[in-house]
Amino acid sequence: MRTTQRLDDVTKTTRIDLNSDMGEGFGPWTIGDGVDEQLMPLISSANIATGFHAGDPNIMRRMVLLARTHGVGIGAHPGFRDLVGFGRRHINAPADELVNDMVYQLGALREFARLAGMSLQHIKPHGALYMHAARDEALSRALVTALQQIEPTLRLFCMESSVTFQVARELGQPVVREFYADRDYDLSGSIVFTRRVGALDPEAVAAKVLRACTDGVVRTVEGQDVAIGFDSVCIHSDTPGALALVQATRRALADHGIEVAGLAGTTAPAQA
């Protein structure tokens, strides 16, 4: 969670959660640079792919054990049933069908967590499904209602500007607001969704995160600043050069006295 303290009327962020999507391969295939093992010690929350957009039982089991080794909180990362499109293509399906898919995926990871003596701390829909829920009240309401029945204390990752956030707050589901370090924003405070991301400058990404943490704003594609509220910073593991992005971001945060800490307040391991 983002923790702040007030000094001489200036709000200063002192700790922040850092999350990344993990286990986004399938069998022998990997997505992105294949750096899950190097990334896991540097983050505090892992969103583990649950089989529909990426991931399989063996990968899920390995990611859970890796997260346990490094003291990283784990969450289910359910997506559209779209392995070919990596879950970044929209599927037009009824809300109840999509929620059933998410509950199915959540249950799969929950069992692997139990097998490792762990519990899930959060759920974060993936890709196009995340963006669909962000603007679709019927889907967000159906998802949160289901969570209220099966996992009422499970944190739901979403953007502050999303319908998902509004519905979760209304129904009392714990939420974690995200800031996307490796995505552009528009004036609505939402990310600009894309299916493919090119290589980014690690120092520029680190500066963007630091500015969001210290000033509470982000520069939009329209060239204006908007206020941004968040509890966790996301850097996607499939973004080219993801390891360098996380390393640069951690250096920038540490240089300004901001520690990477888990949602439950557990400090993530220091950067090697």
From TrEMBL:
<keyword id="KW-0378">Hydrolase</keyword>
<dbReference type="GO" id="GO:0017168">
    <property type="term" value="F:5-oxoprolinase (ATP-hydrolyzing) activity"/>
</dbReference>
<protein>
    <recommendedName>
        <fullName>5-oxoprolinase subunit A</fullName>
        <ecNumber>3.5.2.9</ecNumber>
    </recommendedName>
</protein>
<dbReference type="InterPro" id="IPR011330">
    <property type="entry name" value="Glyco_hydro/deAcase_b/a-brl"/>
</dbReference>
<dbReference type="GO" id="GO:0005524">
    <property type="term" value="F:ATP binding"/>
</dbReference>
<comment type="similarity">
    <text>Belongs to the LamB/PxpA family.</text>
</comment>
<keyword id="KW-0067">ATP-binding</keyword>
<comment type="subunit">
    <text>Forms a complex composed of PxpA, PxpB and PxpC.</text>
</comment>
<comment type="function">
    <text>Catalyzes the cleavage of 5-oxoproline to form L-glutamate coupled to the hydrolysis of ATP to ADP and inorganic phosphate.</text>
</comment>
<dbReference type="InterPro" id="IPR005501">
    <property type="entry name" value="LamB/YcsF/PxpA-like"/>
</dbReference>
<dbReference type="GO" id="GO:0005975">
    <property type="term" value="P:carbohydrate metabolic process"/>
</dbReference>
<dbReference type="Pfam" id="PF03746">
    <property type="entry name" value="LamB_YcsF"/>
</dbReference>
<keyword id="KW-0547">Nucleotide-binding</keyword>
